[in-house]
Design a protein that fits this description.
Strand order of the largest sheet: 3-2-1-4-5-6-7
Number of strands: 7
Number of domains: 1
CATH architecture: 3-Layer(aba) Sandwich
Bound molecules: nicotinamide-adenine-dinucleotide
CATH superfamily: NAD(P)-binding Rossmann-like Domain
Distance between the termini: 59 Å
CATH class: Alpha Beta
Strand content: 5-15%
Order of helices and strands: HEHEHEHEHEHEHHE
Number of helices: 8
Shape: globular
Length: 279
Protein backbone atom coordinates (compact mmCIF):
# COMPACT_ATOMS: atom_id res chain seq x y z
CA UNK A 1 0.00 0.00 0.00
CA UNK A 2 1.47 3.37 -1.00
CA UNK A 3 1.69 6.35 1.30
CA UNK A 4 -0.30 9.47 0.50
CA UNK A 5 2.94 11.07 -0.72
CA UNK A 6 3.41 8.18 -3.15
CA UNK A 7 -0.18 8.55 -4.33
CA UNK A 8 0.24 12.29 -4.85
CA UNK A 9 3.42 11.67 -6.83
CA UNK A 10 1.69 9.10 -8.99
CA UNK A 11 -1.13 11.53 -9.70
CA UNK A 12 1.43 14.06 -10.94
CA UNK A 13 2.85 11.49 -13.37
CA UNK A 14 1.52 11.88 -16.88
CA UNK A 15 3.03 9.83 -19.67
CA UNK A 16 3.37 12.96 -21.85
CA UNK A 17 7.03 12.23 -22.54
CA UNK A 18 6.93 8.43 -22.42
CA UNK A 19 9.88 6.81 -24.18
CA UNK A 20 11.73 10.11 -24.71
CA UNK A 21 15.33 10.69 -23.64
CA UNK A 22 16.13 14.02 -22.02
CA UNK A 23 19.36 15.76 -21.08
CA UNK A 24 19.15 18.51 -18.48
CA UNK A 25 22.29 20.56 -17.83
CA UNK A 26 22.99 21.94 -14.38
CA UNK A 27 20.46 19.44 -13.07
CA UNK A 28 21.68 18.98 -9.50
CA UNK A 29 20.32 22.28 -8.16
CA UNK A 30 17.38 24.65 -8.38
CA UNK A 31 15.45 24.84 -11.65
CA UNK A 32 17.50 22.12 -13.39
CA UNK A 33 16.90 19.70 -10.53
CA UNK A 34 13.13 20.29 -10.53
CA UNK A 35 13.07 20.05 -14.32
CA UNK A 36 14.98 16.76 -14.43
CA UNK A 37 12.62 15.24 -11.86
CA UNK A 38 9.59 16.73 -13.65
CA UNK A 39 10.60 15.20 -16.98
CA UNK A 40 11.09 11.83 -15.25
CA UNK A 41 7.58 12.08 -13.80
CA UNK A 42 6.28 12.68 -17.33
CA UNK A 43 7.87 9.41 -18.45
CA UNK A 44 11.22 10.50 -19.92
CA UNK A 45 14.58 8.85 -19.21
CA UNK A 46 16.89 11.59 -17.96
CA UNK A 47 20.61 12.38 -17.96
CA UNK A 48 21.41 14.57 -14.97
CA UNK A 49 24.36 16.79 -15.90
CA UNK A 50 26.37 18.42 -13.13
CA UNK A 51 29.73 20.14 -12.85
CA UNK A 52 30.32 19.75 -9.11
CA UNK A 53 28.75 17.94 -6.13
CA UNK A 54 28.18 14.39 -7.38
CA UNK A 55 26.16 13.52 -4.25
CA UNK A 56 23.37 15.94 -5.08
CA UNK A 57 23.33 14.74 -8.71
CA UNK A 58 23.01 11.13 -7.53
CA UNK A 59 20.17 12.14 -5.25
CA UNK A 60 18.31 13.62 -8.24
CA UNK A 61 18.97 10.38 -10.16
CA UNK A 62 17.38 8.44 -7.28
CA UNK A 63 14.27 10.63 -7.35
CA UNK A 64 13.91 10.18 -11.10
CA UNK A 65 14.40 6.40 -10.94
CA UNK A 66 11.62 6.28 -8.34
CA UNK A 67 9.29 7.37 -11.19
CA UNK A 68 10.06 4.06 -12.95
CA UNK A 69 12.30 5.51 -15.68
CA UNK A 70 16.06 5.39 -16.33
CA UNK A 71 18.48 8.08 -15.19
CA UNK A 72 22.18 8.58 -14.62
CA UNK A 73 24.42 11.47 -13.57
CA UNK A 74 27.10 12.82 -15.92
CA UNK A 75 29.82 15.25 -14.86
CA UNK A 76 30.66 17.79 -17.55
CA UNK A 77 31.43 21.49 -17.79
CA UNK A 78 29.06 22.80 -20.49
CA UNK A 79 31.57 25.46 -21.52
CA UNK A 80 34.14 22.79 -22.50
CA UNK A 81 33.69 21.47 -26.03
CA UNK A 82 35.32 18.08 -25.43
CA UNK A 83 33.19 17.46 -22.33
CA UNK A 84 29.92 18.34 -24.09
CA UNK A 85 30.80 16.12 -27.07
CA UNK A 86 31.58 13.29 -24.64
CA UNK A 87 28.36 13.82 -22.68
CA UNK A 88 26.06 13.62 -25.72
CA UNK A 89 27.90 10.69 -27.30
CA UNK A 90 27.71 8.71 -24.04
CA UNK A 91 23.97 9.46 -23.89
CA UNK A 92 23.47 8.11 -27.42
CA UNK A 93 25.46 5.00 -26.48
CA UNK A 94 23.67 4.37 -23.18
CA UNK A 95 20.11 5.51 -23.90
CA UNK A 96 20.09 5.11 -27.68
CA UNK A 97 19.43 8.75 -28.60
CA UNK A 98 18.39 12.19 -27.31
CA UNK A 99 14.92 13.69 -27.84
CA UNK A 100 14.95 16.67 -25.46
CA UNK A 101 17.76 19.03 -24.45
CA UNK A 102 17.14 21.46 -21.62
CA UNK A 103 20.11 23.85 -21.77
CA UNK A 104 19.73 25.10 -18.22
CA UNK A 105 23.20 25.44 -16.66
CA UNK A 106 23.97 29.01 -15.73
CA UNK A 107 25.64 31.24 -13.21
CA UNK A 108 26.17 34.85 -12.14
CA UNK A 109 29.38 36.76 -11.40
CA UNK A 110 27.99 40.15 -10.42
CA UNK A 111 29.90 43.44 -10.42
CA UNK A 112 29.41 47.04 -11.45
CA UNK A 113 30.72 47.67 -14.96
CA UNK A 114 33.91 49.43 -13.86
CA UNK A 115 34.69 46.76 -11.24
CA UNK A 116 33.97 43.79 -13.47
CA UNK A 117 37.00 41.78 -14.44
CA UNK A 118 37.42 40.23 -17.85
CA UNK A 119 37.43 36.85 -16.09
CA UNK A 120 33.96 37.57 -14.59
CA UNK A 121 32.63 38.69 -17.96
CA UNK A 122 34.14 35.71 -19.79
CA UNK A 123 33.03 33.06 -17.29
CA UNK A 124 29.36 34.08 -17.53
CA UNK A 125 29.42 34.25 -21.34
CA UNK A 126 31.26 30.91 -21.52
CA UNK A 127 28.76 29.01 -19.36
CA UNK A 128 25.46 30.81 -20.08
CA UNK A 129 25.85 31.35 -23.83
CA UNK A 130 28.65 29.23 -25.27
CA UNK A 131 27.51 26.31 -23.09
CA UNK A 132 24.03 26.45 -24.62
CA UNK A 133 25.47 26.67 -28.14
CA UNK A 134 27.72 23.64 -27.60
CA UNK A 135 24.96 21.49 -26.07
CA UNK A 136 22.47 22.49 -28.77
CA UNK A 137 24.98 21.79 -31.54
CA UNK A 138 25.77 18.29 -30.29
CA UNK A 139 22.12 17.39 -29.60
CA UNK A 140 21.12 18.65 -33.05
CA UNK A 141 23.63 16.34 -34.76
CA UNK A 142 21.81 13.39 -33.20
CA UNK A 143 18.33 14.82 -33.96
CA UNK A 144 19.32 15.15 -37.63
CA UNK A 145 20.87 11.68 -37.77
CA UNK A 146 17.78 10.02 -36.25
CA UNK A 147 14.93 12.14 -37.67
CA UNK A 148 11.32 11.83 -36.59
CA UNK A 149 10.18 8.63 -34.90
CA UNK A 150 6.39 9.10 -34.92
CA UNK A 151 5.74 6.60 -32.10
CA UNK A 152 7.94 8.72 -29.82
CA UNK A 153 7.27 12.33 -30.86
CA UNK A 154 5.96 14.40 -33.77
CA UNK A 155 9.27 16.25 -33.95
CA UNK A 156 12.85 15.15 -34.48
CA UNK A 157 13.96 16.88 -31.29
CA UNK A 158 13.26 19.65 -28.85
CA UNK A 159 15.67 22.20 -27.42
CA UNK A 160 14.61 24.36 -24.50
CA UNK A 161 16.98 27.24 -23.80
CA UNK A 162 16.79 28.39 -20.18
CA UNK A 163 16.89 32.14 -20.47
CA UNK A 164 15.70 34.83 -18.06
CA UNK A 165 13.51 37.91 -17.96
CA UNK A 166 16.91 39.62 -18.35
CA UNK A 167 16.95 38.63 -22.00
CA UNK A 168 14.80 41.77 -22.35
CA UNK A 169 15.05 43.63 -18.99
CA UNK A 170 18.34 45.51 -18.55
CA UNK A 171 19.96 44.76 -15.17
CA UNK A 172 22.47 47.22 -13.71
CA UNK A 173 25.35 45.51 -11.92
CA UNK A 174 24.89 42.35 -13.95
CA UNK A 175 26.03 43.37 -17.43
CA UNK A 176 27.65 40.00 -18.14
CA UNK A 177 24.52 38.06 -17.14
CA UNK A 178 22.09 40.31 -19.06
CA UNK A 179 24.33 40.17 -22.15
CA UNK A 180 24.48 36.38 -21.93
CA UNK A 181 20.70 36.04 -21.71
CA UNK A 182 20.15 38.59 -24.49
CA UNK A 183 22.46 36.36 -26.50
CA UNK A 184 20.44 33.29 -25.56
CA UNK A 185 17.32 34.94 -27.05
CA UNK A 186 18.97 35.37 -30.46
CA UNK A 187 20.71 31.99 -30.25
CA UNK A 188 17.34 30.38 -29.58
CA UNK A 189 15.42 32.24 -32.30
CA UNK A 190 18.12 31.73 -34.93
CA UNK A 191 18.42 28.03 -34.17
CA UNK A 192 14.62 27.77 -34.28
CA UNK A 193 14.53 29.35 -37.73
CA UNK A 194 17.39 27.18 -39.01
CA UNK A 195 16.15 23.89 -37.58
CA UNK A 196 12.36 24.07 -37.96
CA UNK A 197 12.50 22.69 -41.53
CA UNK A 198 14.19 19.62 -40.02
CA UNK A 199 11.25 19.23 -37.60
CA UNK A 200 13.37 20.31 -34.64
CA UNK A 201 11.60 22.67 -32.24
CA UNK A 202 13.68 25.23 -30.38
CA UNK A 203 12.07 27.40 -27.71
CA UNK A 204 13.05 29.38 -24.65
CA UNK A 205 11.80 29.53 -21.09
CA UNK A 206 12.42 32.81 -19.29
CA UNK A 207 11.99 32.62 -15.52
CA UNK A 208 11.48 35.70 -13.38
CA UNK A 209 12.47 35.44 -9.72
CA UNK A 210 12.60 31.78 -8.72
CA UNK A 211 13.59 30.61 -5.23
CA UNK A 212 16.97 28.92 -5.91
CA UNK A 213 20.57 29.27 -4.66
CA UNK A 214 21.52 31.57 -7.59
CA UNK A 215 19.52 34.49 -6.13
CA UNK A 216 19.30 33.60 -2.43
CA UNK A 217 20.05 37.15 -1.25
CA UNK A 218 16.96 38.40 -3.14
CA UNK A 219 14.52 36.30 -1.06
CA UNK A 220 16.15 34.93 2.10
CA UNK A 221 15.13 37.73 4.46
CA UNK A 222 11.57 39.13 4.85
CA UNK A 223 12.85 42.61 3.85
CA UNK A 224 14.51 41.31 0.68
CA UNK A 225 11.46 39.27 -0.26
CA UNK A 226 9.11 42.24 0.27
CA UNK A 227 11.27 44.36 -2.05
CA UNK A 228 11.36 41.58 -4.62
CA UNK A 229 7.57 41.22 -4.52
CA UNK A 230 7.24 44.84 -5.66
CA UNK A 231 8.47 43.56 -9.03
CA UNK A 232 6.04 40.61 -9.23
CA UNK A 233 2.37 41.47 -9.97
CA UNK A 234 1.25 37.92 -9.16
CA UNK A 235 2.41 38.40 -5.57
CA UNK A 236 4.66 35.44 -4.94
CA UNK A 237 8.21 34.36 -5.62
CA UNK A 238 8.36 31.50 -8.14
CA UNK A 239 9.31 27.94 -7.20
CA UNK A 240 11.56 25.70 -9.34
CA UNK A 241 8.53 23.47 -10.04
CA UNK A 242 6.74 26.41 -11.72
CA UNK A 243 9.52 26.41 -14.33
CA UNK A 244 9.80 22.62 -14.49
CA UNK A 245 6.13 22.26 -15.48
CA UNK A 246 6.50 24.88 -18.21
CA UNK A 247 9.52 23.05 -19.63
CA UNK A 248 7.77 19.67 -19.61
CA UNK A 249 4.70 20.94 -21.46
CA UNK A 250 6.81 22.90 -23.95
CA UNK A 251 8.87 19.78 -24.66
CA UNK A 252 5.78 17.64 -25.20
CA UNK A 253 3.77 17.16 -28.39
CA UNK A 254 0.93 19.13 -26.76
CA UNK A 255 2.82 22.22 -27.95
CA UNK A 256 4.05 20.72 -31.23
CA UNK A 257 3.25 23.88 -33.22
CA UNK A 258 5.16 26.19 -30.84
CA UNK A 259 8.46 27.10 -32.48
CA UNK A 260 10.93 29.84 -31.61
CA UNK A 261 8.89 31.26 -28.75
CA UNK A 262 9.89 32.35 -25.28
CA UNK A 263 7.55 31.26 -22.51
CA UNK A 264 7.91 33.76 -19.66
CA UNK A 265 7.40 32.11 -16.27
CA UNK A 266 7.64 35.23 -14.17
CA UNK A 267 4.39 36.07 -12.33
CA UNK A 268 4.09 39.12 -14.59
CA UNK A 269 7.55 40.58 -13.94
CA UNK A 270 7.87 41.56 -17.60
CA UNK A 271 4.63 43.61 -17.47
CA UNK A 272 6.43 46.79 -16.28
CA UNK A 273 4.83 46.63 -12.79
CA UNK A 274 6.12 50.14 -11.99
CA UNK A 275 3.51 51.42 -14.45
CA UNK A 276 0.59 49.80 -12.58
CA UNK A 277 0.15 53.07 -10.70
CA UNK A 278 2.57 55.43 -12.43
CA UNK A 279 3.07 56.64 -15.99
P1 LIG B 1 21.34 27.19 -9.47
O1 LIG B 1 22.59 27.88 -9.08
O2 LIG B 1 20.54 26.50 -8.41
O3 LIG B 1 21.60 26.16 -10.64
C1 LIG B 1 22.54 26.38 -11.68
C2 LIG B 1 23.10 25.04 -12.09
O4 LIG B 1 24.03 25.22 -13.18
C3 LIG B 1 23.89 24.37 -10.94
O5 LIG B 1 23.59 22.99 -10.93
C4 LIG B 1 25.33 24.61 -11.36
O6 LIG B 1 26.23 23.66 -10.83
C5 LIG B 1 25.20 24.48 -12.86
N1 LIG B 1 26.37 24.96 -13.59
C6 LIG B 1 27.05 26.11 -13.41
N2 LIG B 1 28.11 26.15 -14.24
C7 LIG B 1 28.08 25.00 -14.96
C8 LIG B 1 28.90 24.45 -15.96
N3 LIG B 1 29.99 25.10 -16.42
N4 LIG B 1 28.59 23.24 -16.49
C9 LIG B 1 27.50 22.55 -16.03
N5 LIG B 1 26.70 23.02 -15.07
C10 LIG B 1 26.98 24.23 -14.55
O7 LIG B 1 20.46 28.33 -10.17
P2 LIG B 1 19.05 28.23 -10.94
O8 LIG B 1 18.28 29.39 -10.50
O9 LIG B 1 18.46 26.89 -10.82
O10 LIG B 1 19.53 28.51 -12.43
C11 LIG B 1 19.23 27.65 -13.52
C12 LIG B 1 19.06 28.48 -14.78
O11 LIG B 1 17.91 29.33 -14.63
C13 LIG B 1 20.23 29.41 -15.10
O12 LIG B 1 20.47 29.42 -16.49
C14 LIG B 1 19.73 30.77 -14.64
O13 LIG B 1 20.34 31.83 -15.35
C15 LIG B 1 18.26 30.65 -14.97
N6 LIG B 1 17.40 31.59 -14.27
C16 LIG B 1 17.20 31.51 -12.92
C17 LIG B 1 16.37 32.44 -12.31
C18 LIG B 1 16.08 32.42 -10.83
O14 LIG B 1 15.41 33.34 -10.34
N7 LIG B 1 16.54 31.44 -10.07
C19 LIG B 1 15.76 33.44 -13.05
C20 LIG B 1 15.99 33.50 -14.41
C21 LIG B 1 16.82 32.56 -15.01
Amino acid sequence: MGTSVDEARKAERLPLLKGQKALVTGANSGIGRATAIGLGRMGADVVVNYVSDADSANQVVGEIEACGVRAYAHEADVSREDQVVGMVSRMVEELGTIDILVANAGLQRDARLTDMTLAQWQKVLDVNLTGQYLCAREATKEFLRRGVVPEVSSSAGKIICMSSVHQIIPWAGHVNYAASKGGVLMLMETMAQELAPHKIRVNGVAPGAIRTPINRSAWDTPEAEAKLLELIPYGRVGEPEDVARAVAVLASDLLDYVVGTTLYVDGGMTLFPGFATGG
